[in-house]
Amino acid sequence: AQSVTQLDSQVPVFEEAPVELRCNYSSSVSVYLFWYVQYPNQGLQLLLKYLSGSTLVKGINGFEAEFNKSQTSFHLRKPSVHISDTAEYFCAVSESDTGRRALTFGSGTRLQVQP
Amino acid sequence: GAVVSQHPSRVICKSGTSVKIECRSLDFQATTMFWYRQFPKQSLMLMATSNEGSKATYEQGVEKDKFLINHASLTLSTLTVTSAHPEDSSFYICSASNRGGQPQHFGDGTRLSIL
């Protein structure tokens, strides 16, 4: 079984400032890692994913994340945020070596970008 | 990119009604579909996993007779909430993946309100 911890429930930040949303996971097996964004009353949109290879992953909308196996972390970063980045962000994992493809989500982090 | 369509987006109905929610993959073959439930300001909780042509696998605590899932084709899965009650009110989101398994692509969700 896996678990995902997003320590920050809310992150307020000013427009054009950098931001980091933290994600740590726990798993007894190898995992794939994902970040999704959810706008109000909508489904989830994939920002980026780590399946294998380079530990620095670049996604859409200028976001990137780095997989750190020793620290079991997959923090999301953006060097300069926009008002439109205000949303809920979910970190998620799934098992990579077994047939189980379901995602386990963190509790989410609400990014609030202020002018 | 991969598109998943979920319908309806919102349902309001009386207690005791059965409600069917459809999830369609529009431009890829979804060998696996997932159904999640999200309570206000909370994360997504997996309800069940369905593989095309097979019975769904339900997560612990999810009543399979209450939440009927059908995945009869590679592009369509349905979730039927039978004899819905107010406690079933929630945001239901489906996702789909192809044979590769990852990533999952999400629908826009269905907000179900039982009066």
Describe the structure.
- Chain A contains no helices and 12 strands.
- Chain A is mainly β.
- Chain B has 115 residues and is an all-beta fold.
- Chain B has strands at residues 4-7, 10-13, 19-25, 32-38, 44-51, 57-58, 67-73, 76-81, 90-97, 105-106, 110-114.
- In chain B, strands 2, 4, 5, 6, 9, 10 and 11 form a 7-stranded mixed β-sheet that branches. Chain B has a 4-stranded antiparallel β-sheet with strand order 1-3-8-7, with no helix packed on it.
- In chain B, β9 (90-97) and β10 (105-106) form a beta hairpin.
- Chain B starts with a strand and ends with a strand.
- The model of chain B has no long low-confidence stretch (mean pLDDT 91).
Silhouette of chain A: globular
Q: Could you name the ranges of chain B where pLDDT drops below 50 across 5 or more consecutive residues?
A: none
Question: Based on DSSP secondary structure assignment, what is the total number of beta strands of chain B?
Answer: 11
User: If you average the pLDDT of chain A, what whole number results?
Assistant: 93
Termini separation of chain A: 41 Å
Please outline the major beta sheet of chain B.
7 strands, mixed
Total strands of chain A: 12
Please bin the fraction of helical residues of chain B.
under 10%
Number of helices of chain B: 0
Give descriptors for this structure:
heterodimer, A: mainly beta, six-stranded mixed β-sheet, four-stranded antiparallel β-sheet, 12 strands, 0% helix, globular, B: 115 residues, mainly beta
